[in-house]
Every structure is written in structure tokens, then in C-alpha cells.
Amino acid sequence: MVLSTRATQAKDAIMTVSSFLAEAQERGNDPDALDFTFGNPHEMALPGLVSAMQEQLEPRSVDWYAYKTSERSAQEVVASGLRSELGLDFEPADIAMTQGAFGAISLAFALLADVGDEVVIPVPGWFCYAPMLHAANLVPVGAPLAPVDFSLDVGEIARAITPRTRLVIVNSPANPTGRVYPKETWDALAEVLDEASRRHGRRIWLLSDEPYRRIRFDGIGFASPAGSYPWTLIDYSYGKVLLAPGQRLGYLAISPLLEPAERSALREACNPVQLAIGWGFPDALMQYSVPALESVSIDVAELTRKRDRMFDALHSAGYTLTKPEGTFYLWGRAPGGDAATFCRALAEQGVFVMPGTLFDQPAHWRISLTATMEMIERALPVLEAAEGMHRQTAR
């Protein structure tokens, strides 16, 4: 056998996603393709992103582009932003700058989990959790979300925990459902994790996956579980709020509520572990740009307009949908309950959406709202006709 067991498991777990990504990249230069699969930009980059990088491009010292770990200036800006957003006393040393949320999640796995440890993940949830866990020789264990409204089911998480559980991953605002979970949910989860940690004689950690934290609708507030459960790490990516997933910038943050000895141990481990797992730091240019990028954002008002246009039209056409409270996705049930067949039929008409099979939900589908309004208007008649055809067939 050429491949390691973990490489084979990771490849098999991510195969559907990688195939989908390759197809989306092939469609990238087709002006007629109505591609709503991934959260990619369909308009030119945000001016603030471009100007921030341009301002830092010209070297100001001979070591401007030397090897970089976590730049102090970036850590200070992130810690300040977190103090403002979450009301917790983060310090620069609590922040490890990473190559997007991918890098932060990989770092969290390396810091906390040993080979064979179990990690509880939400279902439906981000399709890269399981492949990343397999690649790290860890065991993904699914915990279903509530079946109707896709709220976080704390009882299901409790049932998924075993003596081998080391980590639980939560995601709010959630991909693919768009749900934003309240503090009451985190308080309830904290009780479950604390009790299970005592029962099994081993601390269960929480990884709060928050790349969509700044993309919320209708004035909905945000609470991080880091404020409810001290044994929490936060991962974040700038790629979502900047709508620039190709520029890898993110961080892993340690909850300041953690007891001093554990907080210090994690702080001291981040830098050497990032070196050990393959230089897991953002490029110099991206780190220098952090102070300016903290105030740059996708137009959430325009995104809200796209959400409302798409949701209202599809809901009126008869689709069953979850109205997103955050993220830039719309999640719904496929007509007839067969998402793969539904998505293939749309693709034949030039409209590309993501089947729920990528999220272990074969009856559902996801559509990205990062498309232009012109794309949405062109796609709506096709989507409305597909639901109408299903109703006629069902009679």
C-alpha cells in the first residue's frame, strides 16, 4: 500500500468536496455559469483589502520578508478586537496567528489531542472537520443538530461523549445552516462538558469555530462559548468577512478564563508546535495588514438584501428553508428529498448549488449568497421552475 491509513481515510472523506472544488474552479472563467457552490467572490476584491496589502508591500527594513512567526502588532490588534467583541480580557500572548481557520484548527488538534482521541463534531457541519481529523489520526464522532431548526442539541453532544473524547467542536454562526446560538446554549453545554470531564477523569476541551462571527443579520447578537467554558479555544478566519478565502489569514485564541497554569502552557506551546506542524504562520504581508483589515468587511447590508431576495422568492415557490441568522449561505430541503438528483437537474440548466451529501444530509442543499444580485435574478426562474415541476410530478 502506497498511502498511509490516515491519508487514505482523509482522502476518502474529502473526495466529494475536492471533486466539487475542481469542478467549480473549471467553471471559474465561464461568464454564463451561475455558481452558488462555494463562498467565493464573484466581484472584484474589497478596496480596503487591496489598499491594506498595497500599503505594506514595499519593504521598510531588510528583514521585512524574513521568516515570521506571530507578529506582535497583529496579536495586539486581534486581542483588542476580541476584548471589544466578546467582553473577555484577551492578551496578545493568547493569540497565535495562523494560515486561516484551517491552520488554527490544525494547531488546536496538535496542541490538545493524541492519536486515537475522539472529537465530537456537529452534523450537519463543515465538511472538512472529519477529513482533517482523519489526517491527524483522530476519530470524528457526529452529534446531530436538532432535526427541525438545526439548533445545537446539547443532549446529543452528551450522548456522543465517551471516555476517549478529548474535544468538542462547535460552529456559530453555523455552516451550512446559518444558525447563531445564544449564550444559554453555551451555558448548558459547559455544564455537560464539565460533568463529563469529572466523570471520565479527563478534561474535555471545546473548539469554537467562529469564521463567520462578524457576518450576522437582523441585529442578532453574538456570544462565544469562551465566555461560558474556560477550556475553550477560538479559531477565526479573515477570509469570510473579507470575501477573500485565497488570502490565508486567521488565528487561534486561548480563552482568558482558563486557569493561569493551563493558559501559560498553551501560550508557550503555540509557537514551537506551529513550527513543528509545518510553519503554520500567515505570510508577512498578511500579518502586517491586520491593523487595517480589522475594519474591512463585506457589505452585510447588501448581503442581507441578497438573503431576503433569495429566501422570499424560494419560500414563496414552496421550498422548505432555514432562514440564516448569519454566514452567507441558505440551507433548505431539496424537492422530493433527493438533493443529488435535484442538484444535477439544476446543473443541466447552468445553476450550480451544493448537495447536502457533502454535509451527511442527502435530503438538503446549500446555496452561497456571495453571488451577485444579477446571478441571483438569473437563477431564480430556474429554481422556481424546479420546485414547480416537483409539485406537478408529486400529484
Automatic annotation (TrEMBL):
Name of this chain's protein: Aminotransferase
Domain of life: Bacteria
Signal sequence range: none
Pfam families linked to this entry: Aminotran_1_2
Top EC class of this enzyme: transferase
UniProt entry tagged with the keyword Ribosomal protein: no
PANTHER family registered for this protein in UniProt: ASPARTATE AMINOTRANSFERASE YHDR-RELATED
EC numbers, comma separated: 2.6.1.-
GO MF terms, alphabetically ordered: pyridoxal phosphate binding; transaminase activity
Keywords for this protein: Aminotransferase, Transferase
Aminotransferase class I/classII large domain sequence ranges: 34-380
InterPro entries reported for this sequence: Aminotransferase_I/II_large (IPR004839), NHTrfase_class1_PyrdxlP-BS (IPR004838), PyrdxlP-dep_Trfase (IPR015424), PyrdxlP-dep_Trfase_major (IPR015421)
Annotated family: Belongs to the class-I pyridoxal-phosphate-dependent aminotransferase family.
SUPFAM superfamilies the record matches: PLP-dependent transferases (SSF53383)
Cofactor list: pyridoxal 5'-phosphate
Gene3D superfamilies xrefs: Type I PLP-dependent aspartate aminotransferase-like (Major domain)
